[in-house]
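Fill in residues.
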């Protein structure tokens, strides 16, 4: 099967995870990081999930799985160690036209979750079509050595530059050349070396805009004014 890659906006959307173990915990944490409203169905939870429930960051449905618990959900993840329950979750979700993912069972999935590398707003997703999550993880770890925190900072700076340049109303081809000029400069090396004065100089010389770049939180974020 060939999958269609897509990035979903799940902010404030109800997502249900069936199961309360370690696998479910990882799925819940990623959903929360993306702004979802998460409900977890299960009699017992890991200590981390229990803490999230006590802090009201997730809704804990203390029960075995029932179809009614997924009604109205945007997507559902089946993460139990019971094949029969997982199968029922898949069947019920599809009956209700809800996207479903059953962990480690691609045949029952409407979508699969890639291994993800994030640096700020930069997201690199690696998928093996469900054939080898271990290989996807290995590739992600290799990419982490190439795409460090400096890429997150660069992306924030490029976003601010883009706002200023597009506001000029110039033709898109001209804007594209300016963006490429910035990226083809040694700005990335300057960010790695924390040479912020040189970063500002490159921006001024290349695009004719003055940006004050302040590095925060140990150099993992940047604010451009």
């Amino acid at each position: 099967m060939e999958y269609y890659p897509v990035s979903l906006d799940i902010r404030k959307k109800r997502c249900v995870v069936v199961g309360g173990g370690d696998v479910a915990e990882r799925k819940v944490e990623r959903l929360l990081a993306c702004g979802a409203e998460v409900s977890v169905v299960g009699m017992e939870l890991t200590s981390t999930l229990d803490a999230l429930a006590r802090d009201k960051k997730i809704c804990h449905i203390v029960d075995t799985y029932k179809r009614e618990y997924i009604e109205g959900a945007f997507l559902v993840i089946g993460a139990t160690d019971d094949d029969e329950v997982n199968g029922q979750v898949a069947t019920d979700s599809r009956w209700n036209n809800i996207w479903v993912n059953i962990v480690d069972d691609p045949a029952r999935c409407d979508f699969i979750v890639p291994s993800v590398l994030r640096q700020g707003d930069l997201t690199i997703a690696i998928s093996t079509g469900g054939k080898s999550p271990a290989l996807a993880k290995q590739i992600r770890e290799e990419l982490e050595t190439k795409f460090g925190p400096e890429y997150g900072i660069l992306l924030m700076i490029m976003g601010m530059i883009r706002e200023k340049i597009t506001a000029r109303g110039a033709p898109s081809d001209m804007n594209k050349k300016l963006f490429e000029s910035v990226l083809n400069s040694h700005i990335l090396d300057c960010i790695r070396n924390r040479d912020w004065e040189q970063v500002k100089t490159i921006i001024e010389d290349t695009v004719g805009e003055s940006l004050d770049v302040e590095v925060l939180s140990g150099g993992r974020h940047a604010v451009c004014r």
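Residues 149-224 form one domain.
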